[in-house]
Amino acid sequence: MSFSGKAPGTHNTLIAGSGWPDVSTAEFRQVRRIPHVFDESSVAMAIEIAADNVQGQLTGIEPEALTGAKLALYKRAVYALAHADLLPEFATQNRRDEAENTAEDAGEQGDRFRAQSTRDIAQIKGESPNGIGLI
User: Quick one: three-class SS letters along 100-132?
Assistant: First the structure.
């Protein structure tokens, strides 16, 4: 039980997609294995910003077309981008000795998460993730 009176793990903020698929902090925490000790509002904000970013890159894609594997790719792209953006915050919240290693690795790990998001967006669009087309 926390000071708020809520048991850990009971937080869930739904981020409405406004035509795009909805995403949530609970699903993000489950899929990305994020502990509940991190601030709910920070997590929700990062997911909302990441969703807006991914949606901006999916111009020409109808949100209704995101079903099955494409829906999974959309959510993974959003959650990977949000996770990458939250890594510095995660690293600074743990003050123990191992936090130093976490902070050093955050940049590389963030790059990997952003690359995954880029690959997922490219796959949704039917494009090469390398950004190289036929000449």
Answer: HHHHHHHHHHHHHHHHHHHHHHHHHHCCCCCCC
What is the residue-averaged pLDDT of the chain?
Answer: 87
Q: How many CB atoms lie within 10 A of CB 41?
A: 10
CA-wise closest residue to 84 among 41, 35, 37, 34 = 34
Global pTM value: 0.83
In whole angstroms, give the CA distance from residue 58 to residue 52. 10
Say if CB 47 and CB 15 are below 8 A apart. yes
Using the structure block, give the residue that is written with the tokens 């999974």: 72
33: left (phi over 0), alpha (psi -120 to 50) or beta: left
